[in-house]
């Protein structure tokens, strides 16, 4: 069996052999896989790697800062940040259909990433160097899933960094191809990444954009970010992080619910808690989170997040319900 240090050593050697003296680019999504893949490649080839982080404004509270500051501090990686928050809000204005929303986010993402990758190529060219490789945090289950024909992945359009134009093609570096998620986490810890990144829940590429049912606006994102942060804090405080696969918090932005808050009647919006237990996200069951933990989450969200006056619990397994609502 492999130990974690031997995985790191072996992958570092393989990456060095593959990349040689060429330059490498890597898109960071804010998730565990791309962070660990980038950290491994950085360990192998240092400043030959440039990471690109597209801040689309759809991440959860504090996640962009953790990438921009904590990840960089832990790895010393060379990072290019693109602030694309306005651009994504513009692209999402008026969009409510889930697939249209996913496609709009995927399309903007690839355009912004493409532009950033071109800049990296040009900067390297100015020093007589070539960018030949793109890092992807593909894991073993992804390899199996995409090789295995029709799977759940085709039910919703997932976005990866595919679809770059012909004049901007790279060979792939996939240092996590043989690993499962738990091994990826161990490798991340071995490489010195912060716990907040290594233990991050799976999070969809389109981010909070697909957890707002209805149009995505800056205001709604702020509401959802606050509610989500409270749910995460309480689940962590209750020691449930490792038991729960993930707990999306969904804002029903087009539903108005009546409440009494303070001394008056309010029209607010419900949020849905969607805690699930799963091995691989292909199937899932709703998590039996203790009532007292649910009670704390509900009380805090309705006290602390003005626009939300109702907290509901999703008790649907997958199938038939997917984990995300859109
Ligand atoms: P569903 O909602 O299909 O989600 O049950 C299964 C798992 O995949 C995540 N998810 C995504 N991950 N890009 C991703 O990288 C996406 O577009 C995407 N959509 C859903 C979801 O959070 C769950 O873990």
Automatic annotation (TrEMBL):
Domain GMPS ATP-PPase, first and last residues per copy: 2-200
Keyword terms of this UniProt record: ATP-binding, Glutamine amidotransferase, GMP biosynthesis, Ligase, Nucleotide-binding, Purine biosynthesis
Class of the enzyme per the UniProt entry, highest EC level: ligase
Binding sites annotated in the UniProt record for ATP: 29-35
GO cellular component, one term: cytosol
GO molecular function (one): ATP binding
Catalysed reaction equations from the record: XMP + L-glutamine + ATP + H2O = GMP + L-glutamate + AMP + diphosphate + 2 H(+)
Top-rank taxon: Bacteria
Listed pathway(s): Purine metabolism; GMP biosynthesis; GMP from XMP (L-Gln route): step 1/1
EC code: 6.3.5.2
Protein's job: Catalyzes the synthesis of GMP from XMP.
SUBUNIT field: Homodimer.
Name listed for the protein in its UniProt record: GMP synthase [glutamine-hydrolyzing]
Native source species: Motilibacter peucedani
Portion of the full-length sequence here: 200 to 525 of 525
């Amino acid at each position: 069996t492999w130990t974690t240090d031997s995985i790191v050593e072996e992958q570092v050697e393989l990456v060095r052999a593959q990349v040689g003296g060429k330059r490498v680019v890597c898109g960071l999504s804010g998730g565990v896989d791309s962070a660990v893949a980038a950290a491994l490649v950085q360990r192998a080839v240092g400043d030959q790697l440039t990471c690109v982080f597209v801040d689309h404004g759809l991440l959860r509270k504090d996640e962009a800062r953790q990438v921009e500051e904590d990840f960089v501090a832990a790895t010393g990686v060379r990072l290019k940040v693109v602030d694309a928050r306005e651009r994504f809000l513009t692209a999402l204005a008026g969009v409510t259909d889930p697939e249209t929303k996913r496609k709009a986010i995927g399309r903007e993402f690839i355009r912004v990433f493409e532009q950033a990758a071109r800049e990296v190529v040009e900067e390297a060219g100015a020093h007589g160097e070539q960018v030949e490789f793109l890092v992807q945090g593909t894991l073993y289950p992804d390899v199996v899933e995409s090789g295995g024909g029709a799977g759940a992945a085709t039910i919703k359009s997932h976005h990866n960094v595919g679809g770059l134009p012909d004049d901007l093609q790279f060979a792939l570096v996939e240092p996590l191809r043989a690993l499962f998620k738990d091994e990826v986490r161990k490798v991340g810890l071995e490489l010195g990444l912060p716990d907040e990144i290594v233990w991050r829940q799976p999070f969809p590429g389109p981010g909070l954009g697909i957890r707002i049912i209805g149009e995505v606006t800056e205001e709604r994102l702020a509401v959802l970010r606050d509610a989500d942060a409270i749910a995460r804090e309480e689940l962590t405080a209750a020691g449930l992080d490792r038991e729960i696969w993930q707990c999306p918090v969904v804002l029903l932005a087009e539903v108005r619910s009546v409440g009494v808050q303070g001394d008056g009647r309010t029209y607010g919006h419900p949020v849905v808690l969607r805690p699930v237990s799963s091995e691989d996200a292909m199937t899932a069951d709703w998590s039996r989170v203790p009532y007292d933990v649910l009670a704390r989450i509900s009380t805090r969200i309705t006290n602390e997040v003005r626009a939300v006056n109702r907290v509901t619990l999703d008790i649907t397994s997958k199938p038939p319900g997917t984990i995300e609502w859109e």
